[in-house]
Automatic annotation (TrEMBL):
GO terms for biological process: methylation. This is protein-glutamate O-methyltransferase. InterPro entries: Bact_Chemotaxis_MeTrfase (IPR050903), Chemotaxis_MeTrfase_CheR (IPR026024), CheR_C (IPR022642), CheR_MeTrfase (IPR000780), CheR_N (IPR022641), CheR_N_sf (IPR036804), SAM-dependent_MTases_sf (IPR029063). Keywords: Methyltransferase, S-adenosyl-L-methionine, Transferase. One of its GO terms (molecular function) is protein-glutamate O-methyltransferase activity. It is an enzyme of class 2 (transferase). Its EC number is 2.1.1.80. It catalyses: L-glutamyl-[protein] + S-adenosyl-L-methionine = [protein]-L-glutamate 5-O-methyl ester + S-adenosyl-L-homocysteine. Pfam families: CheR, CheR_N.
Amino acid sequence: MNDYERFIAGIKKLTGIDLSLYKEAQMKRRLTSLYEKKGYHNFVEFLRGIEKDKSLMNEFLDRMTINVSEFYRNAKRWEVLQNKILPKLLERNKRLKIWSAACSTGEEPYTIAMVLSNFLPLSDIKILATDIDENCLQKAKIGVYPERSLNEVPPDIKAKYFIREGQFYRVKEEIKHTVAFRKHNLLSDPYEKNFDLIVCRNVMIYFTEEAKDYIYQEFSKSLRPGGILFVGSTEQIFNPARYDLEVEDTFFYRKK
Ligand SMILES: C[S@@+](CC[C@H](N)C(=O)[O-])C[C@H]1O[C@@H](n2cnc3c(N)ncnc32)[C@H](O)[C@@H]1O
């Protein structure tokens, strides 16, 4: 085993996270810059440090999970969700089962709630939001964001669902109540079933082909027939039929 492989094995034992399913060059680059900054010379030394020091473990987790997000990220896609996808889903069923997978600090599931509030009372909206990173989930539950995270939020929604606190914006409780946050590793935890809509954006880019294939298979099994998978704007699925999916619109796939 080389230095990085020994690191991968050690991290898997410590955390259950399998780094071999993340693109290697990218991951190595990010982690090398962290361990060098901390004064380590190789991955095995870095692993020994992580084993002893909880705060270094947190810094490692923070570096390996890239948490950037924003409300209404790629706003045009959210317009398609609002104008085309949701009306069709709601024709069949008013109580949609929705999952924001790899939700980071909550901007995505809260955006889903805000878009859905154009159709339904907030009391009828229930969204499951998951991420591998517990620190993110804590921040998501607090729901306070810098102004730059809100750049794409339509003005009426901003006025309705955010409270300004100095330089920051707090999401109103009524929106927070629509989302249940939970820790979930897409590569190892069981997937719930019968979703009408799964939103999973800007995480597949970090995974190997093998890992992507596994996750798309699982998403497909988790969607009910007619359910929709909404992916990130650089994450088109090369061969959707392989997963029993068909293109509904760019970046939206329907389970057959
Ligand atoms: C760039 S953010 C995407 C956030 C949001 N979906 C968006 O598009 O703005 C990627 C997220 O994927 C999460 N992540 C990475 N590996 C994961 C895994 N194996 N299972 C679940 N989440 C994971 C990270 O913790 C991070 O919060």
